């Protein structure tokens, strides 16, 4: 349905690449005003330009989601520019170094947890007080639901994202804010290419489609869930 997010303001973190860019572009195609946040200025500005060239509305905000002051400033910037925040896709994340648990460095552990888990919590912390209903989607991973090798901090962070999502969902349901986690398997992005050494996985647009669905009326009874590809495909089909 074209224009289903007209008059809505959406924030996408990690919007300069991969899944975040696909999500930002999909929201823009549906008429949303999009705030694209990223640590990487070049990628973030490129997403902003792609949206503007298609006559969409977007701003780029440079922000490191692992830093409270930058997350607070990012939300202030969205509110200052557009006056509201309806939806947020908290998606920024890093893989970190590939090494088993006993060889994982303290620095890598802290980088990955601070970006992937603390970053999602900080985003929710500053988004929720500004929202009046709407929805938040946090990007976890299938590695939020199962183990795997050489990614101990990543796997711990993605399990944590699901916990933080479920906690917030139960706390803010009474305010009409739905909060869910996406758990994609392999998605063809620069991060996945680094992991596999070659392009691999689903198109990021498939994840974006599910993110938009989780923000739509069609999913209005869903909150506190961690949705894998199979689960969101089934849920989308059931809701049509
Ligand atoms: N690609 C996959 O197979 C896959 C599968 C499951 C989950 N995920 C998750 O999806 C999300 C997006 O990953 P992707 O595959 O699109 O990767 P990507 O590397 O293409 O994009 C990640 C973006 O996040 C930004 N970013 C990183 N650290 C940041 C920080 N501290 N503050 C702000 N922005 C920051 C990067 O600059 C980049 O633009 C991540 O959370 C990732 O863990 C990816």
3D structure, described in words:
With 240 residues, this protein is of the alpha/beta class. The chain has one domain (9-113, 120-238): NAD(P)-binding Rossmann-like Domain (Rossmann fold, 3-Layer(aba) Sandwich). Helix content is 46%, strand content 15%. The chain has 8 helices and 7 strands; from the N terminus they run βαβαβαβαβαβααβα. The protein has a 7-stranded parallel beta sheet, sandwiched between helices. α1 links the parallel β1 and β2. The chain is globular, with a radius of gyration of 16 Å. 48% of the residues are buried. The mean pLDDT is 97. The structure holds nicotinamide-adenine-dinucleotide. The site of nicotinamide-adenine-dinucleotide (NAD) has 31 residues, from α1, α4 and α6.
């Amino acid at each position: 349905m074209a224009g289903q997010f007209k008059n809505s303001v959406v924030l996408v973190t990690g919007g300069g690449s991969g899944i975040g860019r696909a999500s930002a572009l999909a929201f823009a195609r549906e008429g949303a005003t999009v705030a694209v946040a990223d640590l990487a200025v070049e990628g973030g500005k490129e997403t902003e330009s792609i949206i503007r060239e298609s006559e969409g509305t977007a701003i780029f905000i440079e922000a490191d989601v692992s830093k409270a002051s930058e997350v607070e400033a990012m939300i202030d910037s969205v509110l200052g520019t557009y006056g509201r925040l309806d939806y947020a896709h908290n998606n920024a994340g890093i893989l970190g170094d590939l090494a088993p648990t006993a060889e994982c460095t303290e620095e890598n552990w802290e980088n990955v947890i601070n970006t992937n888990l603390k970053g999602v919590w900080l985003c929710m912390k500053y988004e929720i007080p500004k929202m009046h209903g709407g929805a938040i989607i946090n990007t976890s991973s299938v590695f939020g639901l199962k183990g795997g090798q050489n990614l101990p901090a990543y796997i711990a962070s993605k399990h944590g994202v699901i916990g933080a999502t479920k906690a917030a969902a139960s706390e803010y349901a009474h305010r009409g804010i739905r909060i869910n986690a996406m758990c994609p398997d392999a998605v063809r992005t620069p991060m996945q290419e680094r992991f596999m050494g070659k392009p691999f996985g689903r198109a990021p647009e498939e994840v974006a489609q599910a993110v938009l669905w989780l923000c739509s009326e069609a999913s209005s009874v869903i909150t506190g869930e961690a949705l894998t590809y199979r689960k969101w495909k089934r849920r989308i089909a059931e809701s049509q």
